[in-house]
Inverse folding.
């Protein structure tokens, strides 16, 4: 089943990891598990030095973020939610400090979990129609603490607070201006070629020193983020909000909008 | 007496807190106390979701910062200074993590304490003739540690150090460029309408998730900043500098300038 | 011997510290020792309030960074390397928190150690042909932890990671854009006059408050950075990488390039 969601192309020294879970690449437990095991496989292969994350959907969507079914209390339960939370956050924390050089090739919609996946990468390239942010507040939800810390590192406290507290979404031009992305390409067609060109450029320097430097820069945050008991406490806390009547009602509204034709 | 310094207008879901202490809104113990009790009252009113800080002076002055009489050793004493220090810093630290969405509508002069009041807000709007900074060093004084930490968060280490170490004041255009403000309006007349429009925009998202996120982002700094024993030690240390002959002489010079006609 | 490498001009209230170690101001143990003792002398002289670091080479080179002979295991040994590491890093950490106002006048090449020397200064002025970065990764080496932390403070995490992990060098225009320098001048001839003008401007405010503020802002990092046992552990760790066959081979390649005519 994982194979249906992810397929990887191996190139010379790097891999392109394509995500395809119709219709919008929403990330459920199975998709996070598939991502996690695929990246572990690539990390174990010493011929692979870098990975590009790419959406294989035809629509302009990198990923719609977490699958709302995983957050909607009537359709899940505390135990499953805690497992979901742990797999997702330990994958993201581990990828943040991967020995691989990581590039996100972002086209179109990229809210919440999609933005966080891109934030843990070393380099972000996007199309002008991109829409990025950690917009959980718009649904009455909270942004996970370490997702916020990461956004603060990448764009600074001032922009991070605007994005988080007021659920502001950012387009490609603005994302480049505030360092949320590193490079803007003009079209979807130009995206993957630009990502591959970037990877080749970045890999011109040897891995030995870089991997050590990356670890010094990133291990402290990655370790705290992925800590098992911290995640268990955090997900128990989040569950209280998710199972409250007001949140359930807010997500009911999301489902109603999603079920309308012509979304 | 507080009522003479502050008057609040209640709007639909938010309040406008007007400051008016002639001639320049200099902030003495009574004004900080009035601000503190007014904000507590607004926070206790669940119909109020946001507050705008505004100067009701006719002159182009948001506030001139701390009243120099509170810092001038010959006219105060250690006990009063420590009380002043505590009230001011606990108010600012608490406002930094308020459940209210906070907007500063800054016109004209806004040195030191005025800038710090705006820095603890969620959003800063200003006129082009604004003059902001933490310019205590120009008087031979020090900037309080947590005021510096906050400025570093908002504009980054590089600009914060220039502003602090060399007492550089920043105008509206530059303030926008370095993220010291979030929005620039063209005139005093446009300021309050823009602040109200911003508040209405920001309040489109629900409070539930935002208040939790704000608390996660800001509570650590707010808690350290407002810690009673830390403040007592800090004010004792500051008093040494304030009561030194060289500082008293430097403030004598300020009084001489202030007493000149045509200030 | 130190006198041949460094000569200082005393001006009214400040000093210009000229570095001249032909051919490229590469920094060996003796040069770091000379810098350290010269700055201590200036700090002890209460008539001196600021220092400008300047290259006295004719070529467009601020400094080529650490002398590769100090890093090349076949020509040094663990004991000498540890001494080199300690002298260099304790000098830099101490200068970072100097009571003196410090300005770097950077012309031309300024890799690695040259960039770090400029990063500990309060103000950086450069020519357009400047080339700055912490490019150790290009040689398979690592950037010292506190050099990275300092770069993160100055330019933010996003640019710092690009510079460090991918050994990116930055020219004058880009350096100004990302706050790696504070002022760009148009030519070598304009550099030192601009640095002197800047110093005079910065010294218009009194030292008393500034020195305390600088200490509050910088002492925590400076103290950790210069800690003797931390440095001993770090240099032992670095020595493992430096004495590995792959690093020795990589530095052999550097020597081969350096020995070519027309470098």
């Amino acid at each position: 089943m994982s194979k249906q969601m992810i397929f990887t192309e191996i190139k010379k020294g790097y891999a392109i990891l394509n995500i395809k879970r119709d219709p919008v690449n929403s990330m459920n437990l199975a998709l996070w598990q598939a991502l996690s095991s695929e990246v572990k496989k690539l990390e174990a292969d010493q011929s692979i030095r870098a990975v590009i994350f790419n959406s294989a959907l035809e629509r302009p969507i990198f990923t719609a973020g977490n699958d709302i079914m995983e957050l909607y209390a009537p359709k899940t339960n505390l135990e499953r939610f805690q497992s979901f939370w742990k797999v997702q956050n330990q994958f993201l924390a581990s990828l943040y400090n991967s020995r691989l050089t990581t590039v996100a090739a972002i086209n179109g919609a990229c809210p919440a979990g999609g933005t966080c996946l891109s934030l843990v990468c070393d380099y972000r390239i996007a199309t002008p129609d991109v829409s990025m942010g950690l917009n959980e507040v718009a649904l009455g939800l909270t942004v996970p603490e370490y997702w916020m810390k990461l956004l603060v590192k990448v764009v600074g406290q001032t922009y991070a607070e605007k994005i988080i507290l007021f659920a502001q979404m950012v387009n490609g031009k603005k994302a480049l201006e505030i360092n949320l992305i590193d490079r803007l390409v003009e079209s979807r067609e130009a995206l993957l070629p630009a990502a591959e060109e970037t990877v080749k450029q970045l890999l011109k320097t040897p891995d030995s020193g870089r991997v050590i430097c990356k670890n010094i820069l990133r291990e402290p945050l990655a370790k705290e983020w992925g800590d098992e008991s911290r995640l268990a406490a955090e997900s128990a806390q989040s569950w209280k909000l998710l199972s409250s009547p007001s949140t359930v009602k807010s997500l009911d509204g999301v489902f109603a909008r999603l079920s309308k034709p012509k979304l």
Q: What stands out?
A: Strands of chain A lie at 6-10, 14-19, 50-55, 101-106, 109-111, 123-126, 131-133, 183-184.
